[in-house]
Amino acid sequence: MRLVKTIKEVREIVKEWKKQGLTVGYVPTMGYLHEGHKSLIEKSVSQNDRTVVSVFVNPTQFGPTEDLASYPRDIERDKALVESAGADLVFNPEPVEMYGSHFTTTVNTTEVSELLCGARRPVHFGGVCLVLTKFFNIVTPDRAYFGQKDAQQLAVVRRFVKDLNFDIEIVPCPIVREADGLAKSSRNTYLSKEERQAAVILSKSLKLGLEAVKNGERSSAKVIDIITKSLETEKLARIDYVEVVDNENIQRTDVIKGEVLVAIAVYIGKTRLIDNFIYKVED
Ligand code: AMP
Fold first, then answer.
1. Does a structural domain hold residue 180?
2. CA 150 to ligand 1 center in whole angstroms
3. How far apart are CA 88 and CA 48, in angstroms?
4. Is position 179 within any domain?
């Protein structure tokens, strides 16, 4: 397993693999890796001859008041996890390697990035699309792996890959959770002991919403109400949003039909956490 810092090295290594006819899987991450990331890497290893993992805290996807500076970083720990998951290459560029000193190109989606996190984090998905365009051009993978944890990101990626004709299969991976249900996240490290206990309210509340839908509830407003009331029982929780949208275009739907995404963002203290479930109504 190799760790490289430059675009040139990645290109040379991948070119050599392609010459040998090997397939390449790619897992983009911001590092401080956990079991959620590991599940993506293992899936890639199982489906491809070679796997590249990028570890890059991408400055263009953070707003000016967000946690770019404090985002947790530990490349040695990440390297060990990537190696244990069986990947072949870690790409860990510095921001200047990716963006130089004068960068003026943008890549963005409309519609699919309009609501949910897109509405609260106006530069976020533009930054994600931009950095992924660059990584896809550098790594030239056959497949790329994304977690359902970031459901709107997955919808945005599917859309821009289709719209811009990237010849890359996007592979979704299920949410990996802690034993008590909290979705694993690098940002969970921000939580105090008390906040960590409180954070379980996200998955608990979604579970109540899912049960209602499974029992036949088809009103989005009612499902939102069930989840909201449950979140409000936790005094450390402050709701950012609770939404029901269609899982392809990420637009609101009053009625639960087709494939819906039920997504929440909740502040626990100062830490903003997201979680969701997807439900497909069989006709
Ligand atoms: P991040 O490092 O947070 O940008 O995440 C990198 C990738 O890992 C994204 O595709 C995430 O959706 C995915 N990921 C993060 N947390 C989880 C989780 N708990 N379960 C599954 N995938 C995850």
1. no
2. 7
3. 11
4. no
For the chain, the distance separating the N- and C-terminal CA atoms, rounded to the nearest angstrom, is 47
CATH, residue 240: 3.30.1300.10
**Residue 192 lies in domain:** 186-276
pLDDT tens digits, the chain, 283 residues: what are they? 999 999 999 999 999 999 999 999 999 999 999 999 999 999 999 999 999 999 999 999 999 999 999 999 999 999 999 999 999 999 999 999 999 999 999 999 999 999 999 999 999 999 999 999 999 999 999 999 999 999 999 999 999 999 999 999 999 999 999 999 999 999 999 999 999 999 999 999 999 999 999 999 999 999 999 999 999 999 999 999 999 999 999 999 999 999 999 999 999 999 999 999 999 998 7
Q: How far apart are CA 42 and CA 49, in angstroms?
A: 12
**38 and 164 share a domain?**
yes
Instruction: With CA atoms as reference, report the closest residue to 213 among 149, 169, 276.
Output: 276
Residue at a domain's end among 116, 145, 173:
173
In a domain, 29, yes or no: yes
Nearest to 153 by CA among 134, 138, 168, 131: 131
Pocket of ligand 1 (CB under 6 A): 29-30, 36-37, 39-40, 146-147, 149-150, 173, 175-176, 183-186
